[in-house]
Amino acid sequence: MHARASGVAVLPCIVVFATRDRTRAVARAAFPRRRGRLVLTRQSADFEGAFRANLVDAAVVDVGGSSDETWHVAELAREFPSVPFFAQSPVRASDGPTLARCAALDFVDVLADGVDDSAFRDLIVPSGFSARFSVALKEPPSALAITTPMQHAAWTYVIGHAGRTVRTDALAEALGVTREHLSRTFSAQGAPNLKRVIDLVRLIAAAELSKNPGYDVGDVARVLGFASSSHLSSTSQRIVGTKPASLTRLRTIDLVERFAHGRGRSRG
Is the model's pLDDT at 2 over the cut of 70? Predict the structure, then answer.
């Protein structure tokens, strides 16, 4: 049961700004459809728009043909600090000032033409939002009383979606049980209701994304798959007793503590 759940992974969404054909070709080779969702852009507006429409795991900016538009895109690293930005570069002797500028913008790494082509995917994915989110929450907080193998397997599946929508029927299928059995056994021995735990994880992700200056509440709701800002708001107030605007200042431990104080089970 553990193996089936741990094998579930959400395909990472990688946004690439590239005017050079070679960079586009390398990105396509590294992220075929079954290995990731690749958004290739040539215009800064399209690059920025991708952040409003998707939960972006990582961004790649081709600085090999740097221009004003390239640097407009690069500066978005400061607007979306939860997303690791990578520079793609020929890494020539004359590229020192370009790479220094990327470092000043807190890019996490430089991918060198030719040298890093074959490792493109492996260098990017571990630093992505979804991967880091799963690692940070690998061990469920003790306050949630998640102790049994099935509970742990369900938790692994949920955090693997990094705040995206999780359907309980898909989760049950992944674990090889019925939805009714899963819901009943998950909330045994003092653990919260499964659906509420799913909502808690989504709000933890929402809190992380809310700390990005480039996102407002509507953006966060959209990229995480909430029906609307109002839906995010009602979920936040029901699960952790606060409005979405307050999520920015709350840590994961704060959200879990609020949730554990009587909000883990449906009333009545």
Answer: no
Structure tokens at 97: 């000032």
Cβ contacts of 109-112, under 8 Å, gap ≥ 24? 109/84, 110/86, 111/60, 111/86, 111/87
Residues 207, 167 contacting (CB under 8 angstroms): no
* 17-30 per-position pLDDT tens digit: 998 999 999 999 99
Identify the pLDDT of residue 262.
66
Residue matched to tokens 């397997």: 153
Whether the Cβ atoms of residue 113 and residue 60 lie closer than 8 Å to each other: no
Q: What is the pTM of this model?
A: 0.92
Q: Which domains does the chain have, with CATH numbers?
A: 7-130 (3.40.50.2300), 137-260 (1.10.10.60)
Strand order, beta sheet including 109-112: 37-41, 13-17, 58-62, 85-89, 109-112
Nearest in space to 235 (alpha carbons), one of 223, 221, 222 = 221
DSSP, res 31: S
